[in-house]
Amino acid sequence: MTESQQPAAFTELVNLAARGLGAGVVDANDELFAEKENLIVAAAAEFRPHTFGHKGQIMDGWETRRRRGAGADEPHPTDDDHDWAVVRLGAAGVVRGVIVDTAHFTGNYPETASVEAASVPGHPSPAELAAAEWTEIVPRTALKGDTAHEFAVDSEQRFTHVRLNIWPDGGVARLRVHGEVVADPRDLDGLTFDLAAQEHGGVATGASDRYFSSPHNLNSLGRAAVMGEGWETRRRRNKDNDWVELNLAGTGEVLAIELDTTHFVANCPGWASVSGRDAASGEWFDLLPRTRLQPDTRHRFRVAPQRPVDGARLNVFPDGGVARLRLTGRLTEAGRAALALRWFNLVPVEEAVQALTDAGLTRAEAASVTGARPFADAASAQSAVAALAPADTPDGAETSRRRAAIWRLLGV
Fold first, then answer.
1. Where does the source fall among the domains of life (predicted)?
2. Which residue range is the domain that position 204 belongs to?
């Protein structure tokens, strides 16, 4: 394991604004020259000179019309005039960094830009998003043409949407929003699901090799459409093997494993094994022993329930490519509670209050519990409930109601 490559920068985290993860550009004030949807295209922006359409040079990005002032006496836009586009993240989470890429925009890039973020649960309309409370995560900053600008973000909050603002107008090729997925525990209650999936919070944390493609592809949504959408290593010239380690969405029991080598024909690994990381001891043990793989094949294996795991490691022998790794299973009670506590600590105040109210607390009780955040563990959450005003019923019914409500939401 001497070749471990741990993520050293936010660019190695999951792109929450990836179309393949379910992101979408839901609104923009203008897109006359080039469509807003180009902002989240997976591939790098391209430029073909002297390729003109009815609105001018075709640009691979989002480009707005040139702004003008109010009239002949004021032909220039004001300092506040700007354009914007709103992106629904494919998975809600904590944003660690943003890339605003002006690739191929030279005489038509914005002078400055900023990025805001909001948490709006459900499936909000553009009007509802416009009325939301937005938090600035990247302050207004000067841009350069044909440049990928990287901005680190320091905000411990869960967001569902981001808004790119540009002054006064112009074009941006791509927007990347890297961070950590934070799933809503209510979406996973009672379900078996892919514990390794990006959309639920699974993430590749290390790999022996990522020469041809990223290990983040292993737990992406859907099936790989081409070989480049999987994880592939260079040809190994020693007697070791390649591997990827992942943190799971939460502590759980693995019930089935899928190893998909679709599109990998002459470069499929000969064999593979999958290990689980014991959630209590941190020790590794076999979930799937070394097993022969076939090229261009979805391999499915049932797994007898074993010790709860919070991580997994895919080993391939000796090298090659795998399109997808799926670990179907279910959260343990402790895993569900840990996921719920993290989510509850990171959502905005009003969202947290509403969630507790929906679970059965009064609004005053919900506000009191929310005010005690962040909770380090289950005990601190239980203490916040115990600290509520004394129940007014001698039979303990109110205490039982409160405990039931906090259990429904946080599992503690």
1. Bacteria
2. 186-332
